[in-house]
Amino acid sequence: MCDKRMVVGTWIIAFYLLGTVAGEEVCYPRLGCFSNDPPWSGIPGRLLTGLPEPPEEMNISFSLYTRETGNNSQVISAINSSTIQNSHFSSRRRTSFIIHGFSSTGKKGWVVEMCLLLLEVENMNCIAVDWKEGAKGTYVCAVNNIRVIGAEVAYFIKTLQKLFRYSPREIHLIGHSLGAHTAGEAGRRVRGIRRISGLDPAGPYFEGTPPEVRLDPTDANFVDVIHSNAAHFPATGFGMYNTTGHLDFYPNGGTQMPGCNDLLLEMKRSDFEALIADTTIFGSCHHSRSHEYYFKSILYPTGFVGYPCETDEDFKSGVCFPCPKQGCPMMGHYADRFPYKLKRVNQKYFLNTAADPPFASWRQKVFIKLSGVKKMRGDINLIFHDTEGNTKEYEVASGVLSDDKVYTKYLDVEIDPQKTKKVEFLWNKTIFTLLWARMGAETVNIIHGEDGRWSTFCGHGTVTYGVPQLLTPC
Ligand SMILES: *[C@@H]1O[C@H](CO)[C@@H](O)[C@H](O)[C@H]1NC(C)=O
Ligand SMILES: *[C@@H]1O[C@H](CO)[C@@H](O)[C@H](O)[C@H]1NC(C)=O
Ligand SMILES: *[C@@H]1O[C@H](CO)[C@@H](O)[C@H](O)[C@H]1NC(C)=O
Ligand SMILES: *[C@@H]1O[C@H](CO)[C@@H](O)[C@H](O)[C@H]1NC(C)=O
Ligand SMILES: *[C@@H]1O[C@H](CO)[C@@H](O)[C@H](O)[C@H]1NC(C)=O
């Protein structure tokens, strides 16, 4: 039903008759009616949309994972509520719904892995929502379909309320891409949901639209958002750039993630928009990083601290370092631990992540004062070791080096300060440096971004190039 012809037909109507005729409407039992009146279509940035497909055709399913089921999930349905009563669903536990995005699935992959990991840290009900059949046509069809998916999730929650007097305050919706707006639609229909986490909410047909169309802070008591592929002009991307929650996190600036090398970002914007309207492939490494970061944040809670800042440029230049007195929120699963999370909506936070899993990093400002060198070419580095045998090396400065200067740099260290075993200083020569040259670190000061704490280390004497010098607290 939702093929290209219908979309083109709708587009023609929208194009010629915009504002002059009433829209079309479909009604489905249990869920109510859906019209394509503004703001659902026919508004700037959203001219192309039509109507959602019937729920039966999308084959939406809810798979329950609990500590009892493990990997053998139970399919439960609000239409036949005995499936819920006969399942391992427990009304004494909290419930998370995980909702995938365009051309994805809830039957395997990250959605299932997220449920299994959440169960390791909390005894909960985790429900993997699958709407693959509604998500596999063109992008425009899927954009329409999420209105029905959101209504189905809301219907499911209302069924839990009826069956168990289950409170929406026990519910957390986690959605990626179109799944983030699906969660928003569910939250618009059931008030008082505890939390929605939007993982790179889809941008095309949502950016700049009114709140009822997209995820927004009124959809739950607390809304946190990770932007990983934000379409920030002139860059192209699948995600939204604008804030859309209480806490909006922009890792690595929010648009382009390190370790990804997709070419889509280099497309001309007009080509990109044409691609989006027609596409049946949608996704990129950058876009997926949002759910990968969320996943890793469950395992490395302190490794994703977000710094309050207006822009990524300010963040990079150090204006927003270290965290203010009231502290910083953690991006991802533990964002809800931030005491000031509800102080206002649209709070922006910036951080850098590592390029590779587990992506966690701890931002530090380091200062190095050298000893034993008047003027010499080379580079100076710090090596961090943790108690598990991991080692990371960072260059702090290069070029002409001298002991009458302090070298300083912001580092995003991939070693947890709580697990750091030792820190070493290492220098390297250039081809022009004398073979027998020596230098050392007199003092190394480190400011930890998360709490502003200082650590001071001393080297002792000098070392030759390529030989690490142990730094000890002083
Ligand atoms: C739709 O769902 C039913 C029950 O979950 C399943 O048996 C059927 O194969 C599904 N159809 C498609 C096209 O996936
Ligand atoms: C869960 O089951 C699926 C399919 O049965 C399998 O592919 C996956 O590896 C399993 N995951 C875990 C964590 O056991
Ligand atoms: C409802 O689900 C139960 C299993 O819990 C099944 O035995 C029953 O046939 C289902 N009823 C309908 C009407 O599908
Ligand atoms: C961004 O969001 C703010 C606050 O919700 C809103 O005032 C502004 O118009 C939005 N800008 C765009 C381009 O959507
Ligand atoms: C030291 O510098 C040389 C030349 O610049 C380079 O080839 C070498 O890899 C460097 N060694 C280390 C440990 O960085």
TrEMBL record:
InterPro entries the UniProt entry points to: AB_hydrolase_fold, Lipase, Lipase_LIPH, Lipase_N, Lipase_panc, PLAT/LH2_dom_sf, TAG_lipase
Compartmental location: Secreted
Catalysed reactions, as listed in the record: a triacylglycerol + H2O = a diacylglycerol + a fatty acid + H(+)
Record flagged with keyword Metal-binding: yes
Alphabetized CDD domains for the sequence: Pancreat_lipase_like (cd00707)
Enzyme class: hydrolase
Biological process per Gene Ontology, one example term: cholesterol homeostasis
Active-site residue numbers: 177 (nucleophile), 200 (charge relay system), 287 (charge relay system)
Enzyme Commission number(s) from the entry: 3.1.1.3
Pfam family membership, one: Lipase
Annotated binding of Ca(2+), by residue: 214, 216, 219
Keyword terms, alphabetized: Calcium, Disulfide bond, Lipid degradation, Lipid metabolism, Metal-binding, Secreted, Signal
GO cellular component labels: extracellular region
GO molecular function annotations of the record: lipoprotein lipase activity; metal ion binding; phospholipase A1 activity
Family, per entry: Belongs to the AB hydrolase superfamily. Lipase family.
Protein name stated in the entry: Triacylglycerol lipase
